[in-house]
Design a protein that fits this description.
It is a single chain. The protein has 652 residues and is an alpha/beta fold. Helix content is 31%, strand content 24%. It contains 21 helices and 31 strands. The strands form eight sheets. Strands 12-11-8-6-7-14-15-23 form an eight-stranded mixed β-sheet, with helices on both faces. The protein has a seven-stranded mixed β-sheet with strand order 5-4-17-16-18-19-20, sandwiched between helices. The longest helix has 17 residues. The structure holds 5'-O-[(S)-ethoxy(hydroxy)phosphoryl]adenosine. 5'-O-[(S)-ethoxy(hydroxy)phosphoryl]adenosine (WTA) binds next to helix 12, strand 20, strand 24 and strand 25. 5'-O-[(S)-ethoxy(hydroxy)phosphoryl]adenosine binds next to helix 12, strand 20, strand 24 and strand 25. InterPro entries: Ac_CoA_lig, ACAS_N, AMP-bd_C, AMP-bd_C_sf, AMP-dep_synth/lig_dom, ANL_N_sf. It comes from freshwater metagenome.
Length: 652
């Protein structure tokens, strides 16, 4: 969005004050910001007390910038906080998950049942020799066993490293190697878009590489024929079902490692974002309760994120389970078998809180109002959005068509690195504006600064930074300490630079403007331009590649690649080659990274020092007049590119 249209917007934007009824019953009270402001650390201690600790902490925070430790000396178990304590409190019969498979099969899992499954799975992991701090890669479809596997790891203090099921064998292998995982938990496959897809072959393919994996645990989901390596592979049911349902959980230190989750950075190598226990759980649980206003006894909460992303970690597994929520978990795609599937499930389960991504909201808008209108959505009382900036039109549509103009909308800004929500309105307390994430949560300090780290005033834009440590912050990049410091803490001294641009409107509300680095955001998924470039140049036909994220009405950004072919590769029948290249990227990284468009060019615009001027390519990709190109080493390049474009655009 240009600054100009934003300016107009913020002046004209409507403000929705919380309704009196909602405010009266809201979990967040009007004085919450002031309380946190008065005593920030005391505020976080208060939130930490909502967890069950086996030993209290002796010190709330130790901050040796950029290294934080929270709730030092405290001991707890993540899985006990999610499960055992609810069963002990007598709510074991409450439904934890209403699971709906894409083919329509269902499972209802209570807290007591979930606990028993997690204990058995923990015992199975122990039998396989998994110990505290070992790394377990989880590569699963969206089925209950994915959550069970996560909780079983946490229960025995092993670190989970969940790899999104849509990633390729190559991407899986590099994550297995980087974390040095010794166990992979997967499934034969899952159901998506009306059919069964296979997952296990990608694991087999990945494990042809170098690794220290001793076993592969395979959940039978689809029953499809599955190649078997009897030295490594074990069916989940063969080992888990025969375990004892007794397991006494050990207490771990507040700073005990909980998980690694890989995310794209500005280089080709993904970053292993590393989180620990006490602080992460505290903020995940607090934000889940306050931002979604969860009333565990009566709400049915549904976060549509896959477990392979941070949103699935914090707002499907840890936050909601700690709070004793009843959730919907859905395996499949929103248009299978029809475009009203999500709305049908909202009606079926009486969903009250729905948390999803702008890209899906825009897709619903495109499909048409008849799909939501065909279902009774009156159970809904709160709507959330995450993953990318939500445009005001989509926000208003969400409010009107899905929320029936009665549900507050929380636009929640955060990252894999922040672990939990950082900027969001609090329903019942904070007024909302369509398209704005409004203000930092209580206990969080976020600022918008200029390139000299000076705060910009209202009405101005700049870089989003976090200038105080927060409980669920990343503790580092796995095995890459220098990279941790240089990526997040070097741009502005002692301040965390999030990589996002933001603007304060005239009222001081925060508007997120998207990434300012070489990271693209495609349908809410972070993909680095360099990662796609290196996938392209790994193809024999490609000599050089430059990738940009171009504005896309549906997916936020679309991946557009410019490639120079190797000498001797004829660009005849170019379409076929372009398809090959698109598929190659999909194979190397995963279908989410498949370029929307690939253009074959003779030259790339470079500065004299050889840096590719992506800004100019972005102008071409977005069909704009090319901007200032005076720093180009060869001023004719842009003309050549525009004239000689051979484009391969594909809509799939
Ligand atoms: C973007 C997802 C605008 C942002 C939880 C951030 C958002 C990146 C919002 C993190 C939002 C996330 N408004 N932009 N409400 N939420 N982003 O690590 O660019 O997958 O840096 O975490 O998504 O993506 P990640």
């Amino acid at each position: 969005m240009s600054n100009e249209s934003l300016e107009n917007l913020s002046h004209e934007a409507r403000t929705f004050a919380p309704s009196k009824e909602f405010a009266a019953a809201a979990n967040a009270k009007a004085d919450i910001y002031e309380i946190a402001q008065r005593d920030r650390l005391g505020f976080w201690e208060e939130q930490a007390r909502a967890l069950t600790w086996d030993k209290p902490w002796s010190k709330v925070l130790e901050w040796n910038s950029p290294y934080a430790k929270w709730f030092i000396g405290g001991k707890l178990n993540a899985s006990v906080n999610c499960l055992d304590r609810h069963v002990a409190a007598g709510i074991g019969d409450r439904v934890a998950f209403h699971f709906e498979g894409e083919p329509g099969d269902t499972r209802t899992i209570t807290y007591a049942q979930l606990l028993s499954e997690v204990k058995k799975s923990a015992n199975a992991l122990i039998e396989l020799g998994i110990k505290a701090e070992d790394r377990v890669a989880i590569y699963m479809p969206m089925i209950p066993e994915a959550a069970i596997a996560i909780l079983a790891c946490a229960r025995i203090g092993a670190m989970h490293s969940v790899v999104f099921g849509g990633f390729s064998a190559e991407a899986l292998l590099s994550r297995i190697q980087d974390a040095d995982a010794t166990l992979v938990i997967t499934a034969d496959g899952g159901f998506r878009k009306g059919g069964a897809f296979a997952l296990k072959p990608a694991v087999d393919e990945a494990l042809k590489g170098k690794h220290n994996v001793k076993n592969v645990l395979v959940v039978k989901r689809t029953g499809q024929e599955t190649a078997w390596n009897s030295e490594l592979d074990i069916w989940w049911h063969d080992i888990v079902d025969r375990q004892s349902a007794e397991h006494v959980a050990e207490s771990f230190d507040s700073e005990h490692p909980l998980f690694i989750l890989y995310t794209s950075g500005t280089t080709a190598k993904p970053k292993g974002i590393f989180h620990t226990t006490g602080g992460y759980l505290t903020q995940a649980a607090f934000t889940h309760k306050a931002v979604f206003d969860l009333k565990a006894e009566s709400d049915v909460y549904w976060c549509t994120a896959d477990i392979g992303w941070i949103t699935g970690h914090s707002y499907v597994v840890y936050g909601p389970l700690i709070n004793g929520a009843t959730q919907v978990m859905y395996e499949g795609t929103p248009d299978t078998p029809h475009k009203g599937r999500i709305f049908e499930l909202v009606e079926k389960y009486g969903v009250t809180i729905l948390y999803t991504a702008p890209t899906l909201i825009r897709t619903w808008m495109k499909w048409g109002d008849e799909f939501p209108k065909a279902h009774n959505l009156k159970s809904l009382r709160l709507l959330g959005s995450v993953g990318e900036p939500i445009n005001p039109e989509a926000w208003m549509w969400y409010r009107d068509v899905i929320g029936g103009n009665r549900c507050p909308i929380v636009d929640t800004w955060w990252q894999t690195e922040t672990g939990a929500i950082m900027i969001s309105p609090l329903p019942g307390v904070t007024a909302t504006k369509p398209g704005s994430a409004m203000r930092p949560l209580p206990g969080i300090s976020a600022k918008v600064v200029d390139d000299k780290a000076q705060e910009v005033g209202n009405g101005h834009g700049g870089f989003l930074i976090l200038d105080e440590p927060w409980p669920s912050m990343l503790r580092g990049i796995w095995g890459e300490d220098e990279r941790y410091k240089s990526t997040y803490w070097s741009r502005f001294e002692n301040k965390y630079f999030a990589g996002d641009g933001a603007k304060l409107d005239t009222d001081g509300a925060i508007w997120l403007l998207g990434r300012v680095d070489d990271v693209m955001n495609v349908s809410g998924h972070r993909i680095s331009t360099t990662e796609v470039e290196s996938a392209l140049v790994s193809h024999e036909a490609v000599a050089e590649a430059a990738v940009v994220g171009a504005a896309d009405a549906m997916t936020g950004q679309g991946i557009v690649a410019f490639v120079i072919l190797r000498g001797g590769i004829p660009n005849v029948g170019g379409d076929e080659l372009i398809q090959q290249l698109r598929n190659h990227v999909s194979k190397e990284i995963g279908p989410i990274a498949k370029p929307r468009q690939i253009m074959v060019v003779a030259e790339l615009p470079k500065t004299r020092s050889g840096k590719i001027m992506r800004r100019l390519l972005k102008d071409v990709a977005e069909n704009r007049a090319v901007g200032d190109s005076t720093t180009l080493a060869d001023p004719n390049v842009m003309k050549l590119i525009k004239e000689g474009l051979s484009t391969g655009k594909d809509e799939d």
